[in-house]
Amino acid sequence: MDLEIKQKLTSNWFKSLQEMFCKNISDFEKNKISFKSTKWKKNLKKDEGGGEYRILKNGKIFDKVGVNFSKVYGKFPKKFQKNIPGAQKDPRFWASGISVVMHMKNPLIPAMHFNTRYICTTFDWFGGGIDVTPSKKDNKEREEFHKTLREMCNRHDKKYYKKYKKWCDEYFYLPHRKEPRGIGGIFFDYKKDNFEKNFKFVRDVGVTFGSIFQKIISKKIKKKWTSQDKENQYIKRGRYAEFNLLYDRGTKFGLQTDGNVEGILMSLPPYAKWK
Hints:
Elements: H1 3-28, E1 36-41, E2 49-57, E3 62-75, H2 78-81, E4 92-104, E5 111-120, E6 124-133, H3 139-154, H4 160-171, E7 173-174, E8 179-180, E9 185-191, H5 195-220, H6 227-246, H7 249-256, H8 261-264
Antiparallel strand pairs: 1-2, 2-3, 3-4, 4-5, 5-6, 6-9, 7-8
Helix pairs in contact: 1-5, 3-5
C-alpha cells in the first residue's frame, strides 16, 4: 500500500475518534458545558502540519478532559535524530495521533489515558496504549478492566496481552518513587511490518477505550465520596504530573519536535497536591 494512502487512512481515523470521544464526553455532561477547541500549526512560516486540541474543564463529571489530534511533518532536530528509529538515515518525518486524558470530578472514578499514533521516518510504525490510574483501590474494577483488554488483544494475537501489559507495567513506573503510576493496562510501540493487521488492532484499541471509559464512568457516576477521597485524588494527581513531566515519551516527542505546548501539556491535572 502506498505510504500516502496509509497516512491518510490513519490520520482520518484518529480525527474521527476525536469527534466520537468528544461527543461521548459531552453526552455525560448533558451538553451543559462545552469543549474549548484550539487549532494550531506546527510552523507559522511554512506548512509542517498541526492539529487541534479540545479541553473541557469544571464539568459535573470531568474536572478536566483533553482530546488532542495532531498531524505533523518536517525534520527532526539533529540532537533528537539518534533517539528515533530511522531518523539518522533521513531526518524527515510524518506523524499523526490522538491522545485523551481524563481527570474526574468524583475521586472514586479513576483518571484514564489513551493514545494511538502512526509515525513515518525511513520506516513506519504504530504505537499507543490504554491505562487507568485510580486513587482508591477497586479490585473488581481492575479485574474487569484487564479482562476487557485481554479479550480485545486476543482478537488479534494471543501473545499481545501478556506482552503489552508487561510493557505498560514497566513504562508507567516512577523509579524515583519506586511505585507504579496506576493499575496498568497495555502499552505498545514500534508495531511495523504488517500495516493492515496493525491498523486493525489500533482501531480496536480506540473503540475499546471508548467502551471502557463509558462503562467505568456510568458505574460510579452517582457514588458518594468524602473529602479524604478527594485529598487522596490530589496526591495521586501529583504522581501523575511527575510521570508526565519526567518520563512520558509523548511529552518529550512533542516538545522536541516543536509541537503545541498547551496541547502537549493538556495531560496535566487541573489541581494536584504534594506532601
